[in-house]
Give the backbone structure.
Amino acid sequence: MAPLEFQHIERQSHSKFALVEKNDDGDKIVFSAQQVRLYVYFDKNLRRMQKRIGYTPIGYHSFASEFNKEDLPYKFAYWDHASFHEPTITNLNTQSPPMSIFGIEEWECFAPNKAVRPGYKEVLSTEYGELCSMALDQARGATRGRRKAEVRKQEKKNAAAAAEHKKTGTLHFHSGPKNAGSSSRS
């Protein structure tokens, strides 16, 4: 399912959402993709358990109440503390919002489960360390090789200059006669 366009929530980037309505201070309330992901999972747990879970993600009620204003079949369930009796869970008769409507991919969030960006492979941290070490060794070898080539080039240049000096008695890199063009003083 493609991500939906919302009236009360705007997507500011791949990893950031904001409520359209500003708070009392005139600031936008911003939510990370990880928070929205957590809200979706919290909603599912709340519906499954239908009792207090022992935690509520920060900002859940603000996000849920704004999202629930959308004209969608999906609604977030949340505790309604306005009742005179025991608080009740609202919106249990609606569908839980799927992550796909927000366009959030697992790899865009810090996730406790395995979440690997498409096109990448998961490696153990020890293997990753070994790969980094191998890459560093290869880079050092390439740098050493480049330095050796530069030294050999300079040695050849020096040898050619020494041979020229021995042959002509000068350190200049020209093939003209010795000290050509120099003026003599009287």
In short: The chain has a mean pLDDT of 78. The beta strands are 9-13, 16-19, 30-32, 78-80, 88-90.
